[in-house]
Design goal:
Layout: H1 4-9, H2 12-16, E1 21-22, H3 33-44, H4 56-76, E2 83-86, H5 89-100, E3 109-112, H6 122-131, E4 134-137, H7 148-154, E5 159-165, H8 177-186, E6 190-194, H9 206-209, E7 213-217, E8 228-232, H10 234-237, E9 250-253, E10 259-261, H11 275-291, H12 293-312, E11 317-319, E12 329-333, H13 338-347, E13 350-351, E14 353-355, H14 363-366, E15 371-374, H15 382-393
The structure holds pyridoxal-5'-phosphate (PLP).
Pyridoxal-5'-phosphate is lined by residues 26, 88-90, 117, 119-120, 165, 169, 194, 196-197, 217.
C-alpha cells in the first residue's frame, strides 16, 4: 500500500512550493530527489560522452547508459536490444512512421482514432500528404472508448498500420490493446502504440500485449525531459529505416557514400544522446519499481474514483469522462471558458491544464474543443482532492477571468 506522505518527501517540488496542488502530471510529472541526484552526479562526478571514450569515466557512462536499456527492458518486458532511446514519444512515433514509409504504398490505410494526441496523428498525416496513405478512424463512445467489436468491424485488408494510444491523454480511455493487436495481426497489420499515458501509471508488458512498436516519454514517469523510448520487435527493427544519420549509428562509410549501419538499437541513435537524461530515466524506473506499478495503479484508481464522486455533486461542473476508471478527470465549468476557469484554479494555487490538450480532433467525439484536465499521480492526496473540489465549486463566470503572468 502506498505511503503517500513518505512519497511526497521524495519530491522537492512540494517542500519548495508549499500549498501547491499539482494536478498536471499528464503534461509532465514531478521528479523525485533520486532522479535529480542521478542527473546531477553525471555533471559533478562523471561527465563524458558514451561509446566514444577510452578512459574509466567513459567506460562507467557506457555501463550506465547501456545498463539502462536492461532496466527499460525489465520494466516493459522485452529484450534490451529492442529498446531504442529517443528524445520523447513524439520522436519515437516519427521514427516509426518515417522508418516504415518505404514499406507502404499509395492507398494503404493507417487506422487510428479521433482521441489521439497530435504526436500520434501528425506523423501519419505526413505519410498521407507525402505518400498517399489513407487515414481511417475507429469509432469510439462519447468517452473515447473503443470496443473490440467496433475495432474488428473497422479492420480490413487495406489496413497496414494500427496506431492507437494505450491510454488516451484527455479522457483516459484505456484501449483493449491486446485484443486489438490480435485482430490486427490476423490481417498482417503492424500495431504501433502510444504509451505516453500508460507506462507511468500501470504495469505494461509489451510481450503479453504482442504489439509491434510501443513508445513513451520519461518526463511523464518521474524521469528527466528530452528522453523517450521506442520499443520495436526485433524482427521488425531490421526493416525500419533510421530517421537521423550521424555519429555512433554507423559502423563504416566511404567517400562514395556507402554506409554500413550498426545493428539496432544503436542504428537509431545518431549523435550524442541525452546521456544524463537516460541515466535519470534509469533512476526513475528503479524508483517506480521500488514502489510497485500495481500499487501505483491501484492507488490512483481509488483516488480518481473519490475525486469523480465529489465532482459529480457539483452543480456548476460537467464531467466529460466520469465513467472511465483511469486517467485524468476532465470537465468544464458550465458557461465558463476553460482557460478562465483554470486561471481561477491557479489563483487558488492549483495547477491544471486547459484547452484542447493537443487532441485537436477529439471535439468530433466530445462536442467541445475545450476542457479542464486535472491529472493525478501517486504523489497526490485525498486532501488535495478535497481542496480542489472546493475550489471547483467556486468557479463562476464572475470570478473566472483568467490570470495574467
Ligand atoms: C498520449 C500522448 N501522446 C503523446 C504525447 C507527446 O509527448 P511528448 O511531448 O513527450 O513527445 C503526450 C503528451 O502529452 C501524450 O499524452
Amino acid at each position: 500500500m502506498i505511503d503517500v506522505e513518505k512519497i511526497r518527501n521524495d519530491f522537492p517540488m512540494f517542500a519548495n512550493n508549499p500549498g501547491l496542488i499539482y494536478f498536471d502530471s499528464a503534461a509532465t510529472s514531478l521528479k523525485p530527489q533520486c532522479v535529480i541526484d542521478a542527473v546531477t552526479r553525471f555533471y559533478t562526478h562523471h561527465t563524458s560522452n558514451v561509446h566514444r571514450g577510452d578512459y574509466d569515466i567513459a567506460a562507467l557512462n557506457d555501463r550506465l547508459y547501456d545498463g539502462c536499456r536492461k532496466k527499460v527492458a525489465g520494466f516493459i518486458n522485452c529484450d534490451p536490444e529492442e529498446v531504442i532511446y529517443t528524445h520523447n514519444i513524439s520522436h519515437s512515433l516519427n521514427q516509426v512512421s518515417l522508418g516504415l514509409a518505404h514499406t507502404l504504398k499509395q492507398g494503404d490505410v493507417v487506422l487510428t482514432s479521433m482521441a489521439e494526441h497530435a504526436s500520434d496523428l501528425l506523423p501519419w498525416f505526413a505519410l498521407a500528404r507525402d505518400h498517399g496513405i489513407r487515414i481511417e478512424y475507429v469509432p469510439t463512445d462519447s468517452q473515447a472508448n473503443i470496443s473490440v467489436s467496433d475495432f474488428e468491424k473497422a479492420m480490413h485488408e487495406g489496413v497496414r498500420i494500427v496506431a492507437l494510444a494505450h491510454v488516451t491523454n484527455v479522457l483516459g480511455s484505456v484501449n483493449p490493446i491486446k485484443e486489438i493487436a490480435e485482430i490486427a495481426h490476423r490481417y498482417g497489420a503492424i500495431v504501433v502504440v502510444d504509451g505516453a499515458q500508460a507506462v507511468p501509471h500501470m504495469k505494461v508488458d509489451v510481450k503479453d500485449l504482442d504489439v509491434d512498436f510501443y513508445g513513451f516519454s520519461a518526463h511523464k514517469m518521474c524521469g528527466p525531459g528530452g528522453v523517450g523510448v521506442l520499443y520495436g520487435k526485433k524482427q521488425l527493427l531490421n526493416d525500419l529505416v533510421p530517421v537521423f544519420e550521424g555519429g555512433d549509428m554507423n559502423a563504416r562509410f566511404n567517400k562514395d557514400g556507402e554506409v554500413i549501419y550498426k545493428n539496432p538499437p544503436v542504428r537509431f541513435e545518431a549523435g550524442t544522446p541525452n546521456i544524463e537524461g537516460i541515466i535519470g530515466m534509469g533512476a526513475a524506473i528503479d524508483y517506480l519499481m521500488s514502489i510497485g506499478m500495481d500499487e501505483i495503479e491501484a492507488y490512483e484508481k481509488q483516488l480518481r474514483a473519490y475525486f469523480v464522486e465529489k465532482m459529480k455533486q457539483l452543480d456548476n461542473i460537467e464531467l466529460l469522462n466520469p465513467d472511465n476508471a483511469s486517467g485524468p478527470i476532465t470537465f468544464n465549468a458550465k458557461g465558463v471558458f476553460a482557460q478562465d476557469a483554470a486561471g481561477y484554479l491557479a489563483s487558488q494555487n492549483i495547477a491544471v491544464r486547459s484547452g484542447n490538450h493537443c487532441a485537436k480532433i477529439l471535439h468530433e467525439i466530445t462536442g467541445t474543443d475545450q476542457s479542464i484536465r486535472a491529472s493525478l499521480y501517486f504523489y497526490n492526496t485525498k486532501e488535495e482532492v478535497d481542496r480542489f473540489v472546493k475550489a471547483a465549486a467556486e468557479i463562476s463566470l464572475e470570478n473566472a477571468v483568467g490570470i495574467f503572468f
